[in-house]
Amino acid sequence: MASPSRSLQATALSMTCLSIGHTIGGRQWTADPIYGAITGSKPWALGIVGWYQGSAFFLMSGFLHYQWASNPRLLQQPTNKAIAIIMNGMLWASSAWYFRHGIKENGWVVGFGAALQAWAVVRAWVKY
């Protein structure tokens, strides 16, 4: 078995922190009076469930990166490579979306997570 990957451990921690921050952010934007005007509607229901699905995605990603950190050779498998690539694409797309809509703090944080994830995964591909 390969030695643990510190870069993937860092990515696992960053994804877990993103999950917590994402959840806190959801509580902040749902407190906006404009958002309160649609409470109980279909857009409100979809927005709430979608936001918390995003938080769960980050948490799940943290667990997955922790597993990869424990055995970086898992990233040599085609399925794990595909998961890593799709995940990275989602992170970059989300970062771009935030920037496009003027939510710069989220754009920077998610973009940093995307860069860290890309660096850690590529490093595992080359090293292991």
Automatic annotation (TrEMBL):
The chain crosses the membrane at residues 49-69, 81-100, 106-126. It comes from the Eukaryota. This is Integral membrane protein. Keywords: Membrane, Transmembrane, Transmembrane helix.
